[in-house]
Amino acid sequence: MPSHLGEFEQLVLLALLRLGKEGYGVTVRTELLDYAGRDVSLGTVYKTLFRLEAKGMVVAHVGEPTPARGGRRKKHYVVNARGRTALQRSLAALRGLSRGLDLAPGAP
Amino acid sequence: MSPARRLGWLIPSREREFVLGDLEELYGHSPSRLAWEIVRASLALRFHRDPRLTSHVSPLTSKATVMDTLRSDLRFGLRQLAARPGFTALAVLTLALGIGASTAIFSVVNPILFESLPYPDPDRVVQVGEPGTDGTPSRTGYATFVDLQRMSTAFAALAVNSSWQPTLQDKGEPERLNGQRVTREFFSVFGVAPALGRDFTAEEHVRGQHRATILSHGLWQRRFGGDPSVVGRPVTFDGIQYLVVGVMPRTFENLISPSVQLWAPLAYEASLPWACRTCRHLAAHGRLKPGITPEAARRELDVISGRLVAEYPTQYAVAGMLVIPLQEILTRNVKPALLAVLGAVGFVLLIACANVSSLLLGRAMQREAEFAIRGALGARPGRVVRQLLTESVMLALVGGAAGVAIAWLGLEGLKAIAPPNLPRLGAIGIDLGVLGFTAGVSLLTGLLFGVVPAFATARPDLFTALRPGGRHTGSRSRKHARAVLVGGEVALAVMLLVGAGLMLRSLEKLLAVDPGFDSKHLLTMTVQTTGARYTEDQPVWAFWDRTLEAVRAVPGVERAAWTSQLPLGGNFDQYGVQIEGKLLSNPEDAASADRYSVTPDYVQTMGIPVKRGRSFTAQDDRGKPEVVLINETFARIGWGGEDPIGTKVQYGGRDRPWRTVVGIVGDVHHTGLDEESAPQIYIPEAQGHFADGGMDLAVRTRGDPAALAAAVQAAIRSVDPTQPILNVSTMEQLISGTARQRRFTFILFQVFAALALLLAAAGIYGVLAGNVTERTLEIGIRSALGASRSEVLGLVLRQGMALAAAGVVVGGVASLLLVRFLDRLLYGVRPQDPLTFAGVVVVLLAVAAAASWGPAWRATRVSPLEAIRGE
Predict the structure, then answer these.
(1) Which pLDDT tens digit goes with each residue over B304-363?
(2) Given the DSSP bridges, would you call strands B262-265 and B179-182 parallel, antiparallel or unpaired?
(3) Phi-psi bin for B197: left (phi > 0), alpha (psi -120 to 50), beta?
(4) B94 membership: H or E segment, kind and range
(5) Chain B residues 5-34 with a CB less than 8 Å from chain A
(6) Which of B26, B43, B53 sits opposite A26 (nearest CB)?
(7) Residue A91 — φ and ψ, nearest 5°?
(8) Rounded Cα distance, B453 and B478, in Å
(9) Among A77, B75, B120, B360, which residue has the least CB neighbours within 10 Å?
(10) Measured between CB atoms, does A61 come within 8 Å of chain B?
């Protein structure tokens, strides 16, 4: 049975898809802040990345060190097929459930 | 220092580089923000239940199941142990030595003291007999046995046996075997039947039809190749044909005489001269009826014995019978030694535990920061204790596994030095029971040595633990605990050393005992006449004379003589001796004397001093006036102040001739150097009532006696090559053999004491080395303020010696209380022997000083400048 995604997991997966090859801790956090208005700590981002990796939905690979990072290497994350499928199913469920609903405040 | 470098270790190591890199990229401009974010990230990551990180954080999680936590504890523990291979190896080695020694000793002791005998309903198997001088049932005469069997109702089976040494003559070399002649219910006593063939029939127990034999499994395999068709075939013993009727199962252990290889019916009749009441040469064993206690059986036999004594007052010295469980008989003599060894190895195990405990405490100080953070993040102390105990039990189990290997290696050595009276030697080995014991002991030791460090560590002070440079400062109580542990090790080592020292002194005293003859340059062996040629006395005597001539002709032989038994040769041949003019109404009250039937040169060959009168000459021959020599003890006991020389004695029964005492010789230790000499009587072999069929040869050589062994045996074979020669040995080997049980316990105590000393020294070294490291700053300041090297040296040495001295005092007092348990193992030395105690104190203090020297010397090398800069 495929795993379900939490809301924050969906956001992180979407951010990674937007970032393509440039997805790592810092960029994911920035993407969430810029496009979702969510200011989360780096630790929270990593927690979610680890969990997605454990679920087999993202793949990590180690990148090059840069001077801005004190010579430390980056860990890049890319969404794989399993991650895409899970995300698709989650969004479809959201769409299906919300179809025909009026979500405006004050609606009956 | 940048915050990333100072605090980076907070982040789980596996993700440290990437997370720190990201944090630096985001907050590198502001060190304080960066530091804060590192702490935040570490908290987030450590609270996170990521499978890849569980092992790092498991002590914190509280919702996990028991198995989950155990699994993660195990994984985390393994990682901890693997991360410090030096520490782990040292701890495992220490534990392996302690557990291995315990396992080896337990596997020796287990079948003897703890397992029941390998028979059905073993509690019902008893030894029966007239009360012996040592409190065990002694041998009984056939007529008495018949009466007991007829009148007693307590036994399901009752049987007697005598030893039998037939010489097997078939295709191969003639071989003398150890056997038993037994009565009808012998195998029922043990509840074991032949695996092949059958038990003896009633007819085969009748004199004249008793040429049947049952083989042991071992003999059947060795001499008959395990061929089942041997049952029903005849074999020849001593020129007489016996029918093989059965083979005993492989599992049958003949505990009353383990070397026995075959059995034949005893087939006595009451009319035989050697079936009399006073012919006490039969060992009796019984199987009690269900529900009958040995005590109840003894009461019944007492009544029967009372009747017999009333009926035959001159045939019994005392009334009463003994009925004692066989298990008790077998273990009686070895029990004190085995218990002492078991206790000693327990001490070694305790020392090993204390040592590992102390090691763990030392390491706990290095792990303070780890535990402090766990505590700060919400780990309950119980959770940390569990993690630490898991680690120590894992150490112990690995140590236990290595210990089994050590025990397996040590067991062969143990068997090689085992005393000859150790029962069930064949049952000694590493079996499931022993492995269970090892597993239990390992688990227990793991908890034992782990518990002190675990509780001392579980709740460290976050502030001091994380203070820069403060990471190696152990708490006061923990240092105290380490000192107590090491002091305890020293105390235990003292006790073991005292035991080993006392045994060494006993052994020295024992081997210094004058055996009563000159044991150097003396070669001995046994020769047994066998075969149809030697059924009459005359050819046997001729054989002894001719072989003696041949042996004397061997170059390097100074003197040679035959004797019916050798002192310290393991023989027992005593006769009641009556003295003329002092006749006792009950001949059974007469003094029992060791009887030596010897050729004329015997006393000179052995170097036994003639105290008064003369020794034998060639003139004391058949048909000449019959003469005897007696020893000094007999002269004193039998004649009081009177002069025995010229008086007459009689032995072997009223109808025997009176023999004139012509000389008094010195006492000889017959049964052991630690046994008092009994009365002893020497008669010329030529004047005996009968020719002894087997004799011991004593040869006085000019050089090394062992070097002449082959030549002397060749000389005997030149007379008759078919007669078996046994027990070839020098007298010095025989003497050292009599001390084997003492040597066994001594060697073990010596090994354990050495081990204890080594571990205690390592403990002292470890504590002091740790102390010197912690006190680097203090020592540096002292040096800066003008303390000389010798003052610094003294500072550390004093600490080591104080530890050792405290241990020596405690151990010394405990030893004084415990040595009384060794009393039965000592000889010629008081348990409180001051020399031993003083020696132990000197040895221990010397070892402690040596162990302290390294750390002390290192302390003198502390440079004040570096010490202060290091902070």
Answers:
(1) 999 999 999 888 888 889 999 999 988 888 888 889 999 999 999 999 988 888 888 877
(2) parallel
(3) left
(4) helix B85-109
(5) 15, 17-26, 28
(6) B26
(7) -70, -35
(8) 8
(9) B120
(10) no
Closest CA to B550 of B706, B727, B733, B723: B723
Q: Which segments of chain B have a pLDDT < 70?
A: 1-5, 47-66, 171-173, 457-477, 653, 868-871
Q: How far is A54 from chain B (nearest CA, A)?
A: 7
Q: Which of A41, A53, A68 lies closest to B25 in CB terms? A: A68
Tell me the Cα Rg of chain A.
16
Q: Supply the DSSP symbol for B673.
A: T
Nearest to A68 among B28, B42, B52 (CB): B28
CA distance B40 to chain A (A): 7
Tokens of B618: 């060639």
Residue carrying structure tokens 């208005």: A37
Contact list, A74 vs chain B (CB under 8 Å): 18, 21-22
The DSSP element (H or E) to which B324 belongs, if any, is strand B322-325
Contact across the interface for B22 and A70, Cβ inside 8 Å = no
Q: CB of B152 within 8 A of CB of B323?
A: no
**Closest alpha carbon to B242 in B213, B282, B201:** B213
| DSSP annotation of B425 | G
Q: Which chain B positions have a beta carbon within 8 Å of A51's beta carbon?
A: 48, 50
Q: Which of B14, B25, B38, B45 to probe the A interface (max A CBs under 10 A)?
A: B25
- B721: its two tokens: 């090559």
Locus of tokens 């070397």 = B259
- Whether the complex's predicted ipTM surpasses the cut of 0.90: no
Q: What is the pLDDT of residues B689-720, one digit of tens each?
A: 778 888 999 999 999 999 999 999 999 999 98
CB nearest to B44's CB, from A44, A51, A75: A44
Q: Are B356 and B91 in contact (CB under 8 A)?
A: yes
Residues listed for chain A: 108
